[in-house]
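User: Okay, second chain of the day. Same drill as before: sequence in, structure tokens out.
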Amino acid sequence: MQLFISGLASLMTPVILAYMLIGIALGLVFGAIPGLTGTMAIALCLPLTFGMDSTTAFALLIALYIGGISGGLVSAVLINIPGSPSSVATTFDGAPMARNGQAGKALGAGTFYSLFGNLFGIAIMIFIAPFLAKAALKFGVYEYTALSLFALSLVSGLTGKSITKGLISCAVGMLLGCVGAAPIDGYARFTFGISGLEAGFASVPALVGLYALKELLAEVKPSGKVEVMDVDTHIHGLGFSLREFVSQVPNMLRSALIGTWIGILPGIGGATANLMSYGIAKKRSKHPEKFGTGVLDGVVASETANNATIGGAMIPLLTLGIPGDAVTAILLGTFTVHGLQPGPLFFSQNYGLIYTIFAAMVVASILTFLVQFFGMRGFIKVLKLPKNILLPVVIVLCVIGSFGVNNRLFDAWVLVIFGLTGFLMSHFGYPLAPVILGFILGPITETYLRRGLQLSKGSFLPFLTRPISGAFLVLTVAFILFSVVKGLRTKFKRPAE
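Assistant: Same drill. Structure tokens below.
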């Protein structure tokens, strides 16, 4: 505790706090604008840290990290567009809440539970990081394959009214994820001689297209009337009651645990955590049919989980020197620049810096909460802008964000292609959430499956016999059977009604 207080004291200087506030503001902006992620903000600001001392450098980058993850909430709720892949599930209920006149409640809840997710993940990181890192070491290719399949089985909770359409949507997402160089051998698939397809579809333009452009196309109406949403900007506190908070405690704790654990596992990330947490929350709910119509549970599950991944992703970085996601990979480079090497010996050799990083994460989480809380009423006023002004601005930002990912015009076309695909699928009643899940998890599952089969020389037996992978496969089968039985019951009940 004394080391943590010492680390906290080292941050309490006007210069460092100013840098952190700037980092949070930039992170929130990059996280909120579709296509511009927190990862991009950190990459752009990384050269600025080369001349700083290590305390100031990590304080700035951590502020950017936390602000970038939290910023996706704003656009997800207000304009039904996830600012980052980790906020996709927030749109499922956050945007309907905004349409129902509860934008303040959705933003207030998202802001509070983002803070809780951050602090929960950080607490886990501080107290049991070495033990969790050792547990994560037990995950090999077999366990990652089984975990990915389990996450894919949660598609049944995101399918809406028709499981068949949901599975078709998931298959479309997995097929789109197969475009480009195959994992392991790099063989080009489904490129049709187009050079831009050799690297596959970039995830940010694809996700922004599916949600942003689809949403914008859906708003285009030939009526000629300028629509302005009637929004109440008067919010009491965080917008939700103490009774609602108490009712969300199980959901909040479960989602925080899911987010932290997914964060620890390298390569999985917040994009999977928020969808996985949302799917499990829907499965465990007494009223799953209300999900997607604007219920608090969906926002709580998504925002708690995606922010809890921050603390989780830092655990393998600090204890093993293994980055848990793209942001921690950049942070690993920052350690190297400052002559530091994260790993098993890092804790014993750099206690002061370790606890300064812990303190910086806590301070950045609290400052992010305060900035979002006091800016909430201003955010909501965005909904009062006439749509003939708001929508063109959003389209321009989406194109800029998509182009900026790899600085190539092809990604702008990816935005258009995925936008039209999302619009047509929505028009014919096919849910988009399974497309996202298949697109993100399909390549991950294939990579680990092929590595596992190479290791086992083509045998599926190790996937079944190893305890952790076997347990996840049993859970996967159980989830699928439960969904099928539930679907059949619903089908046979309808004629009776």
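The radius of gyration is 22 Å.

User: Thanks, on to the next one.
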